[in-house]
Amino acid sequence: MKQLKKIIYIFGLITILITLKSCGGSYESENREELSSAFEDLFHFNPPNSIEEIKVKNSVYYDTVMYWMYFTYSFDVIKKIISKDQELKIAFKNSSEFNQISEFIKKNTHNPKWLKLPNENTNQIYYKKDFKEHSVLSVYYIWSDSKSRKTYLYIHEY
């Protein structure tokens, strides 16, 4: 009987650990060479030499996927990203859409520490919503901070 209780206890413990492990997790990297492929996967071109720095964080929690990236600002790179993605709309600073987007991003408790929220140093946010067919929600935001000279990307879908 003690042997059976021990087996049940061990099985229960393993089940709990597997359940907790499968609930989600996150990955963050700052390796420029490693992240060049992430940049290319997302924007469909290699980051030019003007993009000196890239950081990425991915998080998956149950059926929610969040993706953050920042890279060195380059006008030419932003222009290329915008021209390749014709679906992007623009939320201008001080507009209600800009403020709603900023609040949505701010509310995410999983934001990386390096993320700079859209603020007075941001003139506009390029965005698209509901771009994934089989998602309840999918949002894509990209903005640049003129003071830090960084461009930030946030994608959230579930």
Protein architecture, described:
- The chain is of the alpha+beta class.
- The protein has one domain (27-157).
- The chain is 34% helix and 31% strand.
- It has four helices and seven strands, in the order H-E-H-E-E-H-E-H-E-E-E.
- The chain has helices spanning 2-22, 32-43, 75-84, 96-106, and strands at 24-29, 54-61, 64-72, 89-92, 124-129, 138-145, 150-157.
- Strands 1-2-3-7-6-5-4 form a seven-stranded antiparallel beta sheet.
- The longest helix has 21 residues, at 2-22.
- The chain is globular, with a radius of gyration of 20 Å.
- Keywords: Membrane, Transmembrane, Transmembrane helix.
- The chain crosses the membrane at residues 7-27.
Q: Order of helices and strands, N to C?
A: HEHEEHEHEEE
Strand order of the largest sheet: 1-2-3-7-6-5-4
Biggest sheet statistics:
7 strands, antiparallel
What would you call the structural class? alpha+beta
Overall geometry: globular
Q: How big a fraction of the residues is strand?
A: 25-35%
Distance linking N and C termini: 46 Å
The count of helical stretches stands at: 4
Q: Care to count the β-strands?
A: 7
Residue windows where pLDDT falls under 50 for at least 5 positions: 16-23
Transmembrane segments: 7-27
Keywords: Membrane, Transmembrane, Transmembrane helix
Per-chain topology:
Blueprint: H1 2-22, E1 24-29, H2 32-43, E2 54-61, E3 64-72, H3 75-84, E4 89-92, H4 96-106, E5 124-129, E6 138-145, E7 150-157
Antiparallel strand pairs: 1-2, 2-3, 3-7, 4-5, 5-6, 6-7
Transmembrane segments: 7-27
Keywords: Membrane, Transmembrane, Transmembrane helix
